[in-house]
Design a protein that fits this description.
Blueprint: E1 4-13, E2 16-21, E3 24-29, H1 32-35, E4 44-53, E5 58-63, H2 66-75, H3 83-92, H4 95-103, H5 107-111, H6 118-129, H7 132-140, H8 156-166, H9 171-179, H10 188-199
Parallel strand pairs: 3-5
Antiparallel strand pairs: 1-2, 1-4, 2-3, 4-5
Helix pairs in contact: 2-3, 2-7, 8-9, 8-10
Length: 201
């Protein structure tokens, strides 16, 4: 099991990033909450990781905070929630927002996330409720970061649409989510954050 990676960030295109660890490039999938914390390209970062082994692939997931990884691991234990859907949930809501949904039985907010139907939302509320104290303890021991995102190269809006599609949104829906957001002075990550905030209201 790979517990964490420390290396140089050489590429980022949500939800993928590449980390150069002593000459080995690790491709990592990460939620948008981690992308918001990423430093500039060619700077050093540390990611808490979780390795998923399938018959056809080994997929490495990375998180800027240990609490995010803890929540990810709890989510994939829920029946019907795989790593991709767990990543989408973490991208669409902060850990605090997710905890509130579980505590308040707010399945409507969960259903707004792509890939989460009514039955899955109800299952999340039921199965995650007992795990919240442990998750809250984990979150309390981790510190939140406010890393500055760097402007994306190319067209930030197009990159944002592509990233949203990777997270499970349909291309037409992804385009609508970003069409009214001004790209001036904003990175791809900034646009995705605003689009996701609008989607879960």
């Amino acid at each position: 099991m790979i517990g964490f990676l420390r290396g140089i960030l050489v590429h980022k295109a949500p939800p993928f990033l590449v980390l150069d660890v002593q000459g080995v490039g690790y491709e990592v999938e990460a939620p948008m909450t981690t992308f918001y914390d990423l430093p500039a390209i060619n700077e050093e970062i540390k990611l808490h990781t979780h390795l998923v082994v399938r018959e056809d692939a080994h997929i490495l997931f990375g998180f800027s905070a240990e609490a995010e990884r803890t929540l990810f691991r709890a989510l994939i234990k829920v029946n019907g929630v795989g790593p991709k859907l767990a990543l989408t949930i973490l991208s669409g809501q902060s850990a605090e927002e997710f905890h509130r949904c579980i505590q308040d039985n707010d399945t409507q907010a969960l259903v707004r996330l792509p890939g989460v139907g009514k039955k899955t939302a109800e299952r999340l509320v039921i199965e995650m409720r007992d795990r919240l104290p442990d998750l809250a303890d984990s979150a309390a021991t981790s510190t939140s970061k406010t890393g500055a995102a760097t402007p994306a190269i190319g067209n930030p809006k197009q990159e944002a649409v592509s990233a949203l599609c990777s997270l499970g949104y349909k291309p037409l829906d992804a385009s609508k989510m970003v069409q009214n957001i001004s790209a001036e002075g904003k990175s791809c990550e900034d646009i995705i954050r605003l689009a996701l905030q609008g989607a879960v209201r």
